Amino acid sequence: MNQEKMGKFIAELRMEQGYTQKEIGDKLGITDNSVSKWERGINAPDICYLKELAEIFHVTVQEILNGERNFKKKEIDKEHHSKILEVKNLSKSFGKRKVLKNITFDIYEGDIVGLIGPNGAGKTTLIKTILSLYKKDTGSVKICGYDNKKDLEKALSKTGSIIENPDLYQNISGRKNLKITALINDIKDKEYIEKMIKFVKLEDRIDDKVKKYSLGMKQRLGLANALIKRPKLLILDEPTNGLDPLGIKELRGILRKISREENISILISSHILSEVENICDRILIIDEGKVNSEFGIEEVKYKNISLEDEYFAKMKKDE
Ligand SMILES: Nc1ncnc2c1ncn2[C@@H]1O[C@H](COP(=O)(O)OP(=O)(O)O)[C@@H](O)[C@H]1O
Ligand SMILES: [Mg+2]
Fold it and tell me: Is 7 helix (H, G, I), strand (E, B) or coil?
């Protein structure tokens, strides 16, 4: 056991999942100062706290002791998970111009997948075609087994999304926005709505009009709004566009937590690699409308290189 490494890992997990030291302390019935001492490697948590920490952070006791996630194991577990999104030989053109060329990939339950590639690669087109906002030329898309053409309504009922800007009414409060979405989707679970408000940390401002929100707050409300219908798949197109570093960090924590606690799969497109590296379990690179490569983030971590290095290596190979 390396006390310092363990401490760093605890701090990482805590921030990733959006807890303060005090919140962790309160959960364990100890002071935030004790948590701070663990994180700085001054003390190691007693055995009795290890189990609780593992539960709070959704990792194993062994992983906390090792000070890192055991990626290999997670990879094997995935084989038993079910497919949430299945994209097969998908092609799409605008006029004569082929923008998506024979795209095939799957997303499994609980996966967070980063869709990366240069501007104009076809990320937004791919997302809009998955959601049936664009009509595909050929191929198939299934969400939780429902075809996005034959069973569109069912497929979409399993999907929450934010494309470009979140779809919100500006002149009413955040809470009213969520209530309207709940009403439209026939969701009566009031507790779940409150849970989502807490999840995205808008408790204090939820009764203010949306037009008074900052961009980060609007993004977070948009996220809660997309989650109200309890989707199995969440699709976010460039969600951190325009957010400041703190906003990005908060969003990252929220997404990780939501994926773990509600078992939601997430497809998130971005051209900012460092950001994707810290949120996603898997990476899908698309370039000029084709899948360039697909890999688990643990592959990059094992090689001890950054996602950026891996990205340029893969893009080069393709030339
Ligand atoms: N509605 C559209 N009509 C015509 N061409 C489009 C349309 N939307 C996107 N394109 C073209 O498709 C290509 C891929 O765009 P897009 O999917 O927005 O890429 P990305 O999101 O990866 O930056 C670009 O060349 C773009 O000009
Ligand atoms: Mg785009």
Answer: helix
Give 81-92 pLDDT, tens digit per residue. 689 999 999 999
In this structure, which residue's CA is closest to atom 5 in ligand 1?
94
Q: Is 276 helix (H, G, I), strand (E, B) or coil?
A: helix
The bound ligand whose nearest atom lies closest to the alpha carbon of 163 is 2
Rounded alpha-carbon distances, angstroms, from residue 191 to 13, 79, 185, 194? 26, 33, 16, 5
Packed helices 245-262 and 3-16: angle between N→C axes, nearest 10 degrees: 90
Alpha helix segments (H runs only) across 228-262 = 245-262
The CATH class that applies to domain 109-135+148-317 reads alpha beta
Three-state DSSP state, 314: helix
| pTM, entire model | 0.79
Helix (H) or strand (E) holding 284: strand 282-287
Ligand closest to CA 128? 1
Average pLDDT over residues 44-67: 90
Q: Which of 90, 124, 164, 237 to mutate to test the pocket of ligand 1 (most atoms within 8 A of CB)?
A: 124
pLDDT at 81: 66
| DSSP H stretches of helix in the chain | 3-16, 21-28, 32-39, 47-57, 61-66, 71-78, 123-130, 152-157, 174-184, 190-199, 215-227, 245-262, 273-279, 297-303, 307-317
- The CATH superfamily label for domain 3-69 reads lambda repressor-like DNA-binding domains (1.10.260.40)
Domain spans in the chain, listed from the N-terminal domain onward? 3-69, 109-135+148-317
Whether the pLDDT of residue 184 is over 70: the answer is: yes
Ligand 1 atom with minimal separation from the 121 CA = 22
> Which ligand sits nearest to residue 122's alpha carbon?
1
Ligand 1 pocket test, candidate residues 94, 123, 136, most atoms within 8 A of CB = 94
Q: Do 3-69 and 109-135+148-317 come out as alike in CATH topology?
A: no
